[in-house]
Design brief:
Layout: E1 2-7, E2 10-15, H1 25-42, E3 49-54, E4 58-60, H2 65-69, H3 74-97, E5 102-106, E6 109-111, H4 113-119, E7 123-127, E8 132-134, H5 137-140, H6 146-155, H7 159-167, E9 172-173, H8 174-179, E10 185-187, H9 190-205, H10 211-221, H11 223-228, E11 232-235, E12 240-243
Parallel strand pairs: 2-3, 3-5, 4-6, 5-7, 6-8, 7-10
Antiparallel strand pairs: 1-2, 8-9, 11-12
Protein name: Delta(3)-Delta(2)-enoyl-CoA isomerase
GO molecular function, one term: delta(3)-delta(2)-enoyl-CoA isomerase activity
EC number: 5.3.3.8
Length: 247
C-alpha cells in the first residue's frame, strides 16, 4: 500500500506497487497511519520535511470507483463513494496540520482525489515527460465534495486555471500545470522529479523550524480550507494546540 523511508531529516512516503493507487479504505487507512508515524517520529528532531511519491505510471487515479460501483445499485454505489469521500477528508486535515513542510513528487497521473492528494502538500514537483492532472468529476457526472472545492480555491490562485480544472475537466500536462500555477517545478522524468523533491525537502528541513509553529502558520494561511476539513486552533498565551476531528 505505502512505505516510509527516512533520508536524513526527510521522510519519504511512497505509494507502492505499479497500479493506479486508487484511494480505497485500505490505502486511505495506510496513508493516515503513515502520517501519524511521521508526526510521532518527527517530534524527536528539530527540522523535518515530508515528500510523498508513488511507484508506477500513476501518482493516484482517485477514489476506488470500481469498488463503489460493485455495490449492486446506484444508491448503494453512492453510499460507498460517500464513505470514501468522508474517509479521505481527514487526510487533508492531517496534511494541513503536519508539523513540517510537505512536497508532492507527482511522478505519474494525478486524477480526482489523487489530484487533491497532490495539492494538499505545500509544494508540488511534477515530471515533464508523462502524466497529467485531471479532475474527472464533470466527465463522470459527480459533484465536488465541499472540501474539494475549498482545497482547490485555496491552492489554485488564478480563477481561469480553476475554471479549466473544474468546469472544463481539462487534462493538464506538467508544463501547462506550471504555467497555470498548479505545480511549482517540472523535471524531466520520474527519477529527476524525486531527486529534486528530496533535495527541496532537505533544504527546508535544514532551516530547523519549529514544527508546531510551521503548522500553525499554515493553518492560519489556509483558514477556510482548514475549517472545511474540521481543523481548529485552540491557543493560550504560551502555545497553540492543533486539534483535528476524529472521523
Amino acid at each position: 500500500m505505502c512505505s516510509l523511508d527516512k533520508r536524513g531529516r526527510v521522510f519519504v512516503l511512497t505509494l507502492t506497487g505499479d497500479g493506479e493507487h486508487r484511494l480505497g479504505h485500505d490505502l486511505i487507512a495506510a496513508i493516515r497511519s503513515t502520517l501519524a508515524r511521521v508526526r510521532v517520529e518527527s517530534a524527536a528532531i528539530r527540522g523535518a520535511a515530508l515528500v510523498t511519491a508513488a511507484e508506477g505510471r500513476f501518482f493516484s487515479n482517485g477514489f476506488d470507483l470500481a469498488w463503489a460501483n460493485s455495490a449492486g445499485s446506484p444508491s448503494a454505489a453512492r453510499e460507498r463513494l460517500g464513505s470514501l469521500v468522508a474517509l479521505f477528508r481527514p487526510i487533508v486535515a492531517d496534511m494541513m496540520s503536519l508539523p513540517m513542510p510537505t512536497i508532492a513528487a507527482v511522478t505519474g497521473h494525478a486524477a480526482a482525489a489523487g489530484f487533491m492528494l497532490a495539492i494538499c502538500h505545500d509544494y508540488v514537483a511534477m515530471r515533464g515527460d508523462r502524466g497529467f492532472l485531471y479532475m474527472s468529476e464533470l466527465d463522470i457526472g459527480l459533484p465536488f465534495p465541499p472540501y474539494f472545492m475549498a482545497l482547490m480555491r485555496a491552492k489554485i490562485g488564478d480563477p481561469r486555471a480553476l475554471r479549466d480544472v473544474v468546469l472544463r475537466a481539462a487534462k493538464i500536462p506538467a508544463t501547462e500545470a506550471k504555467e497555470k500555477g498548479l505545480v511549482d517545478w517540472v523535471h524531466g522524468n520520474a527519477a529527476e522529479t524525486m531527486e529534486a523533491a528530496v533535495r527541496m525537502g532537505e533544504e527546508l528541513a535544514a532551516r530547523k523550524w519549529n514544527g508546531s509553529v510551521y503548522a500553525s502558520i499554515r493553518m492560519g494561511t489556509f483558514q477556510k480550507l482548514c475549517s472545511a476539513v474540521g481543523l481548529t486552533e485552540e491557543g493560550d498565551e504560551e502555545k497553540m494546540k492543533i486539534v483535528a476531528p476524529k472521523l
